[in-house]
Design goal:
The complex is a heterodimer of chains A (308) and B (269). Chain A has 308 residues and is mainly alpha-helical. Chain A is built from eleven helices and no strands. The radius of gyration of chain B is 18 Å and the shape is globular. Classes of the chains: A mainly alpha (308), B alpha/beta (269). At the A-B interface, helix 8 and helix 9 of A face helix 2, helix 4 and helix 6 of B. Chain B: InterPro entries: AAA+_ATPase, ABC_transporter-like_ATP-bd, ABC_transporter-like_CS, ABC_transpr_PhnC, MetN_ABC_transporter-like, P-loop_NTPase.
Chain lengths: 308, 269
């Protein structure tokens, strides 16, 4: 094998020279864009620090106050009385767990209500998201107008914060879990609808074409050609959304829309004592357990659907 | 009789099919040959309206196929079955359901959406699968089958449509020689026994010569040859294939060049 000339007499026409020149140009252009992007990023970061007044000294000054607050909500437990039951008159002894968690059953009932709210809202929202994800997928939409309308509708649904929706709904239909469920369901429809539509856009067009070729209608093309392909992803995203919704429904009670948040709000505003911590511990426990269980289900399902 | 009259399809600046006029009598087995990008695939897709024509007419009997819409268009597609190079089955559905989708057009909408099939429909689908030697895979997911098996399932799906015309878009281009022969034999059997018109895009000349009553040659969107296999001279074929001629003629170079079914021992396994 002979050595290839790196830059012969006809340098401009030599393949290597042309390539090197092209590469140098490309790299130079890329460098310029990298510098511009970094500059823009730095500017935005500085601006957001200034606007939000995120200064270290403020944070340092606030930090002790956080612990101060935690001091006020710590329960006054006494080791010798910790497992003391109620007295003959039915009173709990101060310093015992029974005293701290005197309202345990109320809390548990509300936690149960919170989980049910999350389940209902996820099912409702996922249902709407499922139906709209097909017209909202660029590759599947029957025409541009339907695509535009369903996209904008989903944006509207997820654009309004849940807590704001809940506030309005509490005014409309009154205090209670129904307002919370509807608020979370609307937000879920918007968020899941976008994710579902993106899954649909990645579906293979071949089965869809196959169903079109047998004379299948648009909805049949979706049901037979697309749904089997995307179902595992839909399921996984819906479970993930359920986890998010459990957290959302424990907060949404702050505006009177049901669930444990309502109680949390009450104990914070009226007592600000150890009852706040009692509720907080239960909320954290609930969210953690739901996350763990849901993740287990999701992984088991994905493992079954995609064999190695 | 399927009649194309100056059928044209443009994609932007390129004309994929240019003023194609053809008469295809019922029951013929037609092979369309030509190099890649000659417009074979577009022509076939125009016939079942997966692609809409830019100009010209398609008529079948007294049906104006190019003007069909909605339910009538779906009825035409149901009458005019199609099999694809990449099979286009629903991989995650089982084989039986894939075949049953061939009945979708005949089913009431609620049953179609709920995927409820009658025992009669199931029996019909199983018979079609059995004819292709695939009944034993009925409850497997389609994606677990080999390419040749998937193409046979796709033919079974086309059969349960009870079509009058069967379009095949490069049906053997993704298959090994043995499976290619099984598929082509099946298409010829459907043509001979059921009297269904078969219109088949083929990349290789020998397959077309061997299986088809009539060969149509396409070049750059135009029909440049139309006649029986013995009228297709080597000179003509070279013209149709251009630079790809050697690949299309050389039996050892292409996996889809088939030996006659009678001489099985010549087919490399």
């Amino acid at each position: 094998m002979t050595d290839l000339p790196l830059a012969g007499d006809d340098a401009p026409r030599d393949a290597v020279a042309v390539f090197e020149r092209h590469r140098a140009e490309l790299r130079a252009a890329r460098r310029v864009w990298t510098v511009i992007a970094l500059g823009a990023f730095g500017l935005c970061l500085g601006l957001s620090v200034w606007v939000s007044q995120f200064y270290p000294d403020r944070l340092a000054a606030g930090l002790p106050r956080i612990f101060e607050y935690f001091g006020t909500i710590l329960p006054d437990l006494r080791w010798d009385l910790l497992f003391e039951g109620r007295t003959a008159e039915g009173r709990a002894v101060p310093g015992s767990l029974t005293f701290w968690y005197a309202d345990l059953w109320t809390y548990l009932e509300l936690i149960w209500e919170t989980i049910l709210m999350a389940i209902t809202a996820t099912l409702l929202g996922a249902g709407v998201a499922f139906v709209l994800s097909f017209p909202a997928a660029a590759n599947l939409a029957p025409n541009g107008r339907v695509y535009w309308v369903s996209r904008r509708f989903l944006e509207l649904c997820r654009g309004i914060p849940e807590i704001l929706l809940a506030l309005v709904l509490v005014f409309m239909i009154g205090i209670g879990p129904l307002a919370g469920v509807i608020a979370i369901a609307i937000h879920t429809a918007g968020a899941l609808g976008k994710l579902f539509a993106e899954v649909n856009e990645n579906a293979s067009p071949r089965p869809v074409e196959g169903i079109a070729a047998v004379g299948g209608s648009w909805s049949q093309q979706m049901a037979y050609g697309v749904v089997p392909q995307v179902a595992p992803n839909f399921f996984s995203y819906a479970l993930l959304r359920f986890e998010i919704n459990v957290r959302a429904s424990s907060i949404i009670g702050f505006v009177g829309a049901g669930g444990i948040g309502q109680e949390l709000n009450r104990v914070i505003s009226f007592y600000s004592d150890d009852r706040v911590l009692a509720v907080l511990i239960l909320v954290v426990l609930m969210v953690t357990i739901i996350d763990l269980v849901s993740e287990r289900i999701r992984l088991a399902y994905i493992g079954r659907e995609t064999p190695a | 009789m399927l009649r194309l009259d100056k059928l044209t399809r443009r994609f932007g600046d390129t004309t994929a099919v240019h003023a194609a006029s053809l008469d295809i009598p019922d029951g013929q087995m037609v092979g369309i040959i030509g190099r890649s990008g000659a417009g074979k695939s577009t022509l076939l897709r125009l016939l079942n309206r997966l692609v809409d024509p830019s100009e010209g007419h398609i008529t079948y009997g007294d049906t104006d196929v190019a003007a069909l819409k909605g339910r009538e268009l779906r009825a035409w597609r149901s009458d005019c079955a199609m099999i694809f190079q990449q099979f286009n089955l629903v991989g995650r559905l089982d084989v039986l359901t894939n075949v049953l989708t061939g009945r979708l057009h005949e089913m009431p909408p609620w049953r179609a959406m709920a995927q409820v099939f009658t025992p009669r429909e199931r029996a019909f689908a199983i018979r079609a699968l059995d004819r292709l030697g695939m009944a034993h895979t009925a409850l497997q997911r389609a994606e677990t089958l080999s390419g040749g098996q998937q193409q046979r399932v796709a033919i079974a799906r086309a059969l349960v449509q009870e079509p009058r015309i069967l379009l095949a878009d490069e049906p053997i281009a993704s298959l090994d020689p043995l499976n290619a022969r099984i598929v082509m034999d099946a298409l010829r059997d459907i043509n001979r026994r059921d009297g269904i018109t078969v219109i088949c895009n083929l990349h290789t000349l020998d397959t077309a010569r061997q299986y088809c009553d009539r060969i149509i040659g396409m070049q750059a969107g135009r029909i440049v040859f139309d006649g029986t296999p013995d009228l297709l001279t080597t000179q003509m074929a070279r013209e149709i294939y251009g630079a790809e001629a050697d690949a299309a003629f050389d039996e050892t170079a292409t996996s889809t060049a088939l030996a006659p079914s009678a001489a099985r021992q010549r087919v490399p396994a």
